[in-house]
Amino acid sequence: MNLKARLRQILAVGGIETLGVVFAGIAGLLIVNVLPKEQYAQYTFLVAASNLMLGISDLGLAHCVLPIIGTRAGEKTWVVGVSRQVFSWRWVMLTGGLLVVGPYWYFNSSGRGWIEPAYLVGTVLYFTIVLLQLREHYYNSVAVVLGHISTTNRIAAVALTTRLVLIGAVLLLPVTDWSVTGILGATAAAGMVAVEMYRIALRKLEVPDFTLDAADRKKVDKQALKITLPLLPAGIFLQVQGVATIFLASLFGSTDLLAEVGAFGRLAIVLTVVDRVTSVLLFPVLARTPTGPRLGKIVLRVHAAYMAAMALVFLSAVFGGHFWVMLLGAKYANLESHVWMVILSAILINASGFAFRTLAVRGLTAKQHYTVPVIISVQVLYFWLFGISDLVSVLGFGIATSLANFVAQYALLGARMSHLHKDQDAAS
């Protein structure tokens, strides 16, 4: 692909991802501004619980698809077969996620007196959303690997527009106990639209509905196990700590604190533009680029560019916190002085994920378990020194955890840079 075509692709994907973040941001900010704190706390908790459940269904499996497909990305049956086999294990893992999240959902929900008909229906809807997201992730994985970027862009635009319009319609109605349920119903409807559009599009693109034979399934499982096994200890821990601030707020804080932590999470959504663009365009390139000096230079350049972009975002939070907090509405006006803490935490955790994915697409997942004791030590030390009692301590815990992740992942990346730089012929 020449430079001009690559730039057009970056602009197209960047445009749709920016649109996605804008639409998601508008929807999220409408929800923050309209819902009372009690209901927004419920919404925040359900989102965190569903994210944890979806994360447990992964635990490194999503990082297996590209390395296993490798240079055979042009073979439709191989791409579909590998994706299907890997995602079949994600459906199995989803059951484990439900067993983990279910008891905590009941403990927190009953303790806060939330178990009412509207909340129960909302919980069922959010589980439905998780099922739809898993199916959508499968279709998206196949489409991206096969290079049907315009298809993924079109489907994302339609689904995002559908969700925004439906949520807007729900929020125009008087606020009741069923408002959160209506918002979740709108999200589920948008997910159904996306899944159906993917199904129709892949059929038109003549992407076969293919299952690998028993021998190939065994090979894929073996490769997937080799990649994911080193990730399991860290994966389990990182999925839990990914929603740690929300869960800590729900355990030790008031409903208002839970709502404030959730509202702050909306501010960091701008960072997902870079992450989504790189997931679509950069990491498939890293997966198929031969090991050697060119690969090493690409990795160094993209990480330098990433850090520069994140530095600009952080400066905007330090010197323009009042503009950020205006987005949340008058109920959260007292949070301006804490904006930089939220953005810093988000930058560090996103950057650590960027480093991890750089390693994962090359199958370099060994030694990830070493990150767990580092992060736990930092968390225990922070909890011992400062405790968890208010918003500042919760946000500080998030920064400490994110910093530990950042240092650990970039240490692993730095240790493997010589491998990425090494000439493939010399290595063999």
UniProtKB/TrEMBL annotation:
According to the record, the segments passing through the membrane are 12-35, 41-66, 87-106, 118-134, 155-172, 178-195, 227-252, 264-286, 298-325, 337-356, 368-385, 391-413
User: Which UniProt keywords are present, listed alphabetically?
Assistant: Membrane, Transmembrane, Transmembrane helix
Protein's recorded name: Polysaccharide biosynthesis protein
